[in-house]
Specification:
With 164 residues, the chain is mainly α. The chain has 4 helices and no strands. The N and C termini lie far apart (66 Å).
Amino acid sequence: MTWSNVPGSGPQQHPGARQHSEAERVAWEQGATSLFPPAKIADRVSTVLLLAAGAVLTAITAVAGVVAVASTTASCGADDGCSPGGTVGGAAIAVGGAFVIGVVTLVFAIRAWIRRRTSWWIAGIGFVLTVAVVTWGTVLVVQALDEQGVGPGRGFDTAQLPVP
């Protein structure tokens, strides 16, 4: 039931509406019927938690991207022949992509709420896509750092599995 369909609401009911019994009206007034059943509450909570996790991941990625770009720019000189373009591109893909996915996910989740549909799966897909884009951007940043050699010895080794 919705607020507009409260049993015994009187003249607002249209002629074809089902008439509610006295027991249904009393149950409604005593709170036996909930506008948000437990499944709806779990859906909303899980959606909000997934959206918040995506937002936190995006914020952390933005900070890490700024630090990576700043350190690369500081260590690259014109005489070294290196350019921070790879790290800027990777950071932009990671942060920009995560932000766009987050906004689109939020819009679709709110749209599902308005239509009274479940939305946890929308937030779940958005979170997975956010992780994928952040991973892609991070791989590009590390690859750019590896190609230009950053550090005191001008070498940057990525972590690799031992070869048997």
